[in-house]
Write a structure and sequence with these properties.
The structure is a single chain. This protein has 266 residues and is of the alpha/beta class. It has one domain: 3-Layer(aba) Sandwich (Rossmann fold), CATH 3.40.50.720. Helix content is 51%, strand content 12%. It has eleven helices and seven strands. Helix 1 packs across helix 8. It binds NADP nicotinamide-adenine-dinucleotide phosphate. NADP nicotinamide-adenine-dinucleotide phosphate binds next to helix 1, strand 2, helix 5 and helix 7.
Amino acid sequence: MKISGSTILITGGTSGIGIEFAKHFLALGNTVIVTGRDHAKLDAAARTLPGLQTIRSDVTDTHAVADLVEQMTTRFPKLNMLVNNAGIMKGVDVLQPQDNLLDLTQEVETNLNGPIRLASAFLPLLRRQPSAAIVNVTSGIAFLPMPPSPVYSAAKAGLHAWTVTLRMQLQSTNVRVFEVAPPLTATPLGTDTFHPEVIKGIPMMEVERMVAAALKGIAQDKYEIRPGMSNVMKTVSRIAPNWLVANMLGATVDKMRQNAATSQAH
Ligand SMILES: NC(=O)c1ccc[n+]([C@@H]2O[C@H](COP(=O)([O-])OP(=O)(O)OC[C@H]3O[C@@H](n4cnc5c(N)ncnc54)[C@H](OP(=O)(O)O)[C@@H]3O)[C@@H](O)[C@H]2O)c1
């Protein structure tokens, strides 16, 4: 897929992996539009990256998605790449009382339902272009679940399945479907979700390296891009998934509970 001279929409493009994608796509001569929920973060992104276009839009709000499609169709009718990147991650201890059941499934709304809705809503516009792409940002966790983040793990595994089926349904069209599955990456989501003890021993990739690998993969028409540990996780998921989850990742739940108990005590 050509990664220059395109019009690219990146959801959640004000931070971490999204803004790094935006920086590189701009440098490659693309028109880049990013979304996010927070006005201040959108303004800061526009100041940091001259030429960047920003639109406030929440992927979980169906009215906002319809409005985004309308705005993009009018202002950027040549849109030919949609990067479904917006995402959130939480630690969830199922033994703790869940007061807000809607909040409990927010990662499914954002990380799974969001990309499904956006792909469906933007397909008519993407189908009008000579060549187009949908890039879904999943996770290495799509292949092997992370026990302290059960809802996130379920959402990302679901997004992986949706991406595979979307690719098959669109294979005879002008729209190619890519999956970028980052490993643990040094972004606010990667570093701030858990206490460092919980993720100790899991290699953390720099965001520049992660996005460079993703761009190389997209340019080479590699449809499932698994940088660093994500490739290992996919392989292990086929050979010994239960062993790794029980013996290595299983300890992360104990560490999450220990940390929660320590912070409550203080
Ligand atoms: N970092 C990692 O270790 C890692 C590993 C694997 C996969 N990923 C995936 O990579 C993607 C990017 O994550 P990141 O690490 O770059 O996180 P990040 O730095 O926290 O950035 C997340 C971005 O998503 C936006 N966002 C969140 N909820 C949104 C919503 N409902 N509608 C629109 N925008 C929304 C945020 O802006 P607002 O808050 O202003 O909306 C922000 O721009 C996510 O899908 C994540 O699951 C990350």
